[in-house]
Amino acid sequence: MSDAPTFRRAQRRWALWGVLFVVLLVIAAVAWVTIRGMLAKQDLESSVAHVDTLRSQLAKGDTAGAQRTAAKLESSAADARAKTSDPVWAVFEHTPFIGGNLRAVRQVSAIVDDVASDAVRPVAGVLGDVDVDAFKPADGKIDLQPLVTAQPAVAKATTALGKANRAAERIDTGDTVSAVTDAVNQLRASLASVSEQAAVADKVVQLAPAMLGDGGAKHYLVLFQNNAELRAGGGIPGALAMVTAQDGAISLGQQASTSDFPQSDDPVLPLATDTQGLYGSITGEFIQDVTLTPRFDTSAKLAREMWKRQYGQRVDGVLSIDPVTLGYILKATGPVTLATGDQLTSDNAVQLLLSEAYAKYPDPTVQDAFFASAASAVFTKVSEGGFDPTAFISALTTGVGEGRVKLWSADKGEQAELTGTAIAGGLPTSDTSSQQFGVYLNDATGAKMDYYLEKTVSIGSQVCRKDGRPTWTVEVNLKSTAPADAATSLPEYVTGGGAFGVSPGAVRTNVVIYAPSSGVYVASTQDGKTAAPQTAMDGDHPVAQFQTTLSPGKSTTIRIEYLGGPDQGRTPVDAVSTPGVHQSVTEPLSTSCESPVD
Question: Coil, strand, or helix at residue 399?
Fold first, then answer.
């Protein structure tokens, strides 16, 4: 009997020791997770810093430094992943309050590590061979082999970034603290942007060698669109040229102007019913009108056929560019001197090519020679490698982003890769992330008055119905900045001289608005009065077309409403538009249910 109390005391001691052991184990585990969490945070912060450094080095063309930074990024990302993937951490992911935060941090660490090892590392491995200088001709030729060599690495990186982007979207932040939520959202935004850029880079690396003549000569028709006489696709093809690419060497061949192409009695190719109904058969009859439609693939096919009929040459693709982009390129090349003695610079290119040339050289034949000289001078300097490659790529990127540079390939495989990208020049695209409108302008003056046309596009969305369907509102403001005495002070070639029923000095414009496929036309006004536009369809897109005529200094505002589709009330809206002389930026439009279009 005397041993029983002793035994019970021993039991209690062992129980206390057991409890103490458990408490110490919990404290140790908490400390373990806390310390490793803090260390992982430091590793992730180091990774972010390495990414910033990497971007800066790539922008400067410091490929050796970028390779070293990529190695540091891979190391810090791997450390963060290791510190957040042990068994203790996994147990704490299932605890209340902190579990969701730990799970999100572990997922972020894993994604960053995957990006570092599967995207950054393979690309870093070829950085020494492929940098911005790879796009600079040497002795008139671009070395295509580094691009070919880089294809597998860039493709792997693109796949990895796409996978990481999808993984980031699946992270549950429903019960995470604000700091973790913000970090996840920042990761999502960065991955969405980078994966999109990588997809573009992948297409460039995959397509560029073949399109630059690796494996056989390629012939391209280049359209120089004139924004002073607007077309939905940019402007009339005021000048044209044949360019040949063979094994990276690029040469300029036959040049022509619109006056070299006769009118066809019928469209040179069958036109889609929608295209002919909106823009008329002239779209396929005059070289100046092939860009009336915003479908660049249609414009390119028509121009290709017209070139073949006139010169007997069947081209492999069509490239479009405008004087504004030439101005961007001149920042990379520096000034060029034309055959006329004029000096073309990044500062005067637009004004000289789209305005001053008409007063300086009133003879259309001389104008054609002047424009051909400008195109030839810039091309020669680029083909000889006389430019800064970083600035050149920036110029082209800006031109593509603004819709000023477009490319179509007659090769079905190449065109399939181009379709859906900005350079393809397709109709507006909509998805769950954005509903996109198109606002396109076609000159109806028959002259060059659009140099003086300014445009502002505003767009807004408001849910006013019980079923949640949004009301989309688009507002287009056009203003003529032509001088008050434009009728007499500007050359007749610029004003049109009233040849198409438009008073000299005035500018007439057809405004074409494309809605997303789910849009239902509701109503529209012009300057506050009820409007009656032409309504039609172009493929899946509802279209409304208006006509405006502006005297010097006058402006007009078109406002149109569409009813959006179910479940689109929270989807953002934006718009693309015809790139004019002055690039317009889409602005947000404040709308309310109390102020609908009447």
Answer: helix
Angstrom distances, CA of residue 519 to CA of 192, 470, 516, 543, 544: 27, 10, 5, 10, 12
Determine the average pLDDT of the residues in 489-512. 95
DSSP 138: B
Spatial contact of 294 and 425, defined as CB atoms under 8 Å apart: yes
Estimate the crossing angle of helix 323-333 against helix 364-383, to 10 degrees: 40
Of the listed ranges 333-347, 358-372, 402-416, 510-524, the least confidently predicted one is 358-372
Mean pLDDT of 90-119: 83
CB-count exposure of residue 188 (10 Å: 0-12, 13-18, 19+): middle
Please tell me the predicted confidence (pLDDT) of residue 33.
58
* Overall size of the chain counted in residues: 598
Task: Give the span between the Cα atoms of 300 and 407, in whole angstroms.
Answer: 8
Higher pLDDT, 182 or 547: 547
pLDDT digits (tens, 9 = 90+) for 233-284: 999 998 999 999 999 899 999 999 999 999 999 999 999 999 999 999 999 9
Q: What is the dihedral of CA 17, 21, 26, 28, to 10 degrees?
A: 130
3-class DSSP state of 543: strand
Give the Cα separation of 108 and 93 in Å (integer).
Answer: 14
Output the six-digit token pair for 286: 């005059």
Cα 172 from Cα 170, distance rounded (Å): 6
177-184 long-range contacts, CB within 8 A, separation 24+: 177/101, 180/101, 180/104, 180/105, 183/44, 183/108, 184/104, 184/108
- Helix, strand, coil percentages in the chain from 3-state DSSP, rounded to 5: 50, 20, 30
First-to-last alpha carbon distance for the chain, in angstroms, is 101
Do the Cβ atoms of 71 and 106 come closer than 8 Å? no
